[in-house]
Structure formats: C-alpha cells, structure tokens
Amino acid sequence: MKRREFIGGAAALGLLQTQGGGEQSVAAAEAGPLPADRDADPLRLTLSRVDIALVCSHFDESLRFYHELLGLEIAQDLRIPDEVARGAELAPRGFRHVRLRAGDTLIKLMDIASPPARRSHQFAAGVRWLTFFVKDVQKSYEQLQAKGVRFLTAPVAAPDAAGIVCALDPDGVLIELVQLHASDAG
C-alpha cells in the first residue's frame, strides 16, 4: 500500500500520476488500452473500466468491511487537498481517498470530515449495489459469514446465475455475490 499526496486533477478521474518519474500510473497498469477507433464514442474513453467512489458515513467500518472482511487489496491511500476537492466539486473540503482493487475495478472509499448520515436500507435512487462475480457463491457465503459479514438471506438460484446472495456494507450499499452458470463463466 502506498500513501501519497494528490499531485494533479487527473486523480479525480482515475488517472493518477505517481511520484517518481518512470513509474506507471495505477490506472494504466491495471487496464489495457481500448480500440484505437473511438471517434464515435462521445467520451473517448482511454480505459475499459469505470472506478466507483463511495462516500462513507463511518470510514473505518467501511475500510474494515471492504479490506478485511471482503479481502480487497488496498491499491492506494492518498490525500486529496481542499483546492482540488472544491475545484472539481468532488467534496466541500479535502479528504482521504483509499482505493481498493476488485479485479479490474477500483472501489474508492472517501473519508471526509463531517460525513453524511448513513442511508436507509430502503430501496432508493443512486448506486444501489455492487456485484462481485465469484467462483463458488456457497463457499464465499460460508467463509464471509464466518468472518462476520451479515447476509440478508442464504444463496438462491436465479434465471441468469447459479447462485446469488446479498449483504449490506456499513452504509447500506447492497453487496451482491453472483456465481454464473458454468457455461456463462469465463
């Protein structure tokens, strides 16, 4: 894990430049290039992934949940200064930003002063859930339950999956574990 100071506006867009001249950016090292002919794409994406940021009401609980319980690796731990947070309208003031690796995706946890209250567990607009595709949903369920993750139900089958099970993160975001049918995996 590396802790760094923010060094440019690109970090807010998942294109963090790292200190030390020859080192590749985290984003470039994690995802391959997109096809060269992207002129019809209005965004003109340079990476084939999208990173997800979560504002945490209780940062330490969220970091423990994603890192210790789910086992996601910490890719970066950095500080976004006030002028960048306000300048890009990311947040009202600077914040700590911990990026956790989930396959090719980065889940970015925001530790901000005066965080908002936890959301309700009611169905609501906005990001509702994160889906993690697992090899064996029953085994993942059992192992995570033994570590203290509280699930809403036991795994169930679905038309498009061999098994699905859901838990809630500390802020009420649904964490969905999906095992694809053997013919769909791969």
Could you give a short description of this structure?
The protein has helices at 26-30, 59-69, 82-87, 137-146, and strands at residues 3-5, 52-55, 73-80, 95-102, 105-112, 129-133, 156-158, 161-168, 174-179. The two termini are 30 Å apart. The chain is built from four helices and nine strands; from the N terminus they run E-H-E-H-E-H-E-E-E-H-E-E-E.
What does this structure look like?
The structure is a single chain. The strands form 2 sheets. Strands 1-3-4-5-2 form a 5-stranded mixed beta sheet. It has a 4-stranded mixed beta sheet with strand order 6-9-8-7, with helices on one face. 17% of the residues lie in helices and 28% in strands. The N terminus is likely disordered. It is globular. Strand 7 and strand 8 form a beta hairpin. The protein has 186 residues and is of the alpha/beta class.
Write the layout of secondary structure elements.
Blueprint: E1 3-5, H1 26-30, E2 52-55, H2 59-69, E3 73-80, H3 82-87, E4 95-102, E5 105-112, E6 129-133, H4 137-146, E7 156-158, E8 161-168, E9 174-179
Parallel strand pairs: 1-3, 2-5, 6-9
Antiparallel strand pairs: 3-4, 4-5, 7-8, 8-9
